[in-house]
Each structure stands twice: as C-alpha cells, then as structure tokens.
Design brief:
117 residues; six-stranded antiparallel sheet; three-stranded antiparallel sheet; 0% helix; globular
Length: 117
Amino acid sequence: MPDHDERPWGNYTVLDGGDGYQVKRIEVIPGKRLSYQKHAHRSEHWVVVQGQATVTLDGQDRHLAEGETVDIPVGAAHRIANPGDGRMVFIEVQRGDYLGEDDIVRLEDDFGRAARG
C-alpha cells in the first residue's frame, strides 16, 4: 500500500495505521470531488483542517467549515467536494476489520471509475 497517492481530484497521504485503523491526510483540488461511494468493512471520521467542504451523506448535503467533522457509518453512501477556490484538506480516520482500497463501491464518479453493471 502506498504512503502517498495522486488522484484526479487531488492526493492522499497515509499518516498512521495499525490493527483496525488508518489515518489519512487528503487534499482536494478546487472544484473537484471524490467518488460517491460506500464501504462494507469500515467507518470513517472526517475533520476539515483547511478550506471548506460539501459532504453528501446518503443523499443529504452538508457544508463543513474548518474544524468541523462528520462521521460516515459502515455502508453509508458518501462523498466530499471542494466548493472553494483554494485547496481543501481533511483528515480521515478509518476504523474497521478491513481497510484496503478495494473496499470501495463507487456509485458515481466524475472520472469514469464507477462500477458498471
């Protein structure tokens, strides 16, 4: 698993990890958003540390400012977007029995990576 990865929406860096948890620093480019996705094996806790974010959780949008948080339960459909004109940075704490990148079911994706079927 890479400690840092570039994505079409920005990048992430793994800061820490252990048995049942992983912590990432995620940067999102202005005007970009991550996939609308869900996970079968992990929950996530997000805290915005720079900029502003729009979070969609099970179809409901919520605006987050710096210092604000949101909890993503296992199985919930979610996405985060950067509506601002500067980079948005958030910290993601993952908890669960499996934390691999292949525990992502993409429901919608701006970059053509959503599951087809």
